[in-house]
């Protein structure tokens, strides 16, 4: 698409943001509190063979340190998915999509603390606005404490930040191919899920047998679109357009999560909750535009659901 219009080049990346926004609703259609781990085995078990076929030539050439580094990152990634998925089944799709977007605020804050580099005042103001927005969103008109689901998704945002920081600072994987690294991370996380699944709920194949056509459609949506399609579009996009542009387009994910949550899941927010959601959207985008901390070597944000090579100018 090198000779195509900017709109056509941007459209696939925007579609990634849309499918990511729908992922919280999709999770609610295929998982319950007792089947979260089994569902995660199915979700990534479907996509790993497909990714593995493409990644095999690179995987064969990886060194021991790269495999170990990817495995460690996979354990962190597993924590992200567990918190995010358990959170999504205990709160609304709208809340989950907006709260997870706080990673865009947490990551520059953590990078600043580690590098002892002050952030722009505008970013700190955006971070404060995001906190206020989440408080209004989860309280929705009162002084109610956040639900367990809200707190789990918030924890996922924190652990996702840890994953990004660990990836950017782990020298062993500095030159590892993104596709191979993604496969190793997902394989490590899925292996842990498969080992744990029998002790925390029904077996994955039992859950698979219980799914009807609609649930299988949602599961394939999570595996093929939210993971496989998203990865390859991002790998293409960072080679055909600027990383900052990719980051900006992917930053619309929480907006789409709110759209799907309200229109399809029937989520209802009062006036204060709507104000809180709007503040989160404004604050995360404001923070994305004002924070421009360089990451060592250019961080590679690859977590199976959100995977993109970022340049120093990109924050997401």
Please characterize this protein's 3D structure:
With 316 residues, this protein is mostly helical. Helix content is 74%, strand content 2%. It has helices at 6-30, 36-59, 64-88, 93-100, 103-115, 121-139, 148-169, 178-200, 204-210, 213-240, 243-250, 253-263, 271-290; strands at residues 300-302, 307-309. It has a two-stranded antiparallel ribbon with strand order 1-2. A hairpin with a 4-residue loop joins strand 1 (300-302) and strand 2 (307-309). The longest helix has 28 residues, at 213-240. Mean pLDDT is 84; it is low at 293-305 and 307-316. It comes from Kitasatospora aburaviensis. It is found in: Cell membrane.
Give the integer mean of the pLDDT values: 84
Helix content: over 70%
Number of extended strands: 2
Q: What general outline do the C-alpha atoms trace?
A: globular
Kindly give the count of domains: 1
Continuous helix count: 13
Q: What characterizes the major β-sheet?
A: 2 strands, antiparallel
Span between termini: 24 Å
Q: Which structural category do the helix and sheet elements fall into?
A: mainly alpha
Radius of gyration: 19 Å
The share of residues in extended strands comes to under 5%
- For this structure, the quaternary state is single chain
Strand order of the largest sheet: 1-2
């Amino acid at each position: 698409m090198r000779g195509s219009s900017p709109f056509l080049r941007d459209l696939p990346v925007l579609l990634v943001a849309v499918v990511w926004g729908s992922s919280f609703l999709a999770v609610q259609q295929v998982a319950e509190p007792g089947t979260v781990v089994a569902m995660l085995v199915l979700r990534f078990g479907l996509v790993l063979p497909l990714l593995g076929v493409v990644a095999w030539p690179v995987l064969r050439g990886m060194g021991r340190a790269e495999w170990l580094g990817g495995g460690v990152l996979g354990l962190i990634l597993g924590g992200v998915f567990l918190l995010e998925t358990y959170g999504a089944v205990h709160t609304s799709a709208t809340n989950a999509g907006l709260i997870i977007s706080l990673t865009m605020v947490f990551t520059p804050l953590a990078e600043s603390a580690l590098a002892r580099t002050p952030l722009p005042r505008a970013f700190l103001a955006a971070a404060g606005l995001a906190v206020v927005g989440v408080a209004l969103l989860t309280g929705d008109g009162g002084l109610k404490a956040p639900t367990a689901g809200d707190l789990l998704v918030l924890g996922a945002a924190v652990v996702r930040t840890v994953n990004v920081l660990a990836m950017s600072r782990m020298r062993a994987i500095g030159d590892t191919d993104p596709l191979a690294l993604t496969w190793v991370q997902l394989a490590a996380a899925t292996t842990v899920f498969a080992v744990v699944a029998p002790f925390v709920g029904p077996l994955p194949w039992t859950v698979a047998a219980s799914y009807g056509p609609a649930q299988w459609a949602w599961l394939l949506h999570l595996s093929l679109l939210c993971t496989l399609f998203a990865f390859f579009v991002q790998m293409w996009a960072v080679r055909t357009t600027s990383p900052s542009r990719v980051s900006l387009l992917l930053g619309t994910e929480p907006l789409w999560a709110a759209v799907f949550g309200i229109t399809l899941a029937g989520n209802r927010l009062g006036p204060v909750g709507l104000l809180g959601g709007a503040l989160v959207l404004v604050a995360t985008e404001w923070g994305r535009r004002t924070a421009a901390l360089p990451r060592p070597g250019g961080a590679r944000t690859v977590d199976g659901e959100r995977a993109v090579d970022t340049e120093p100018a990109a924050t997401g």
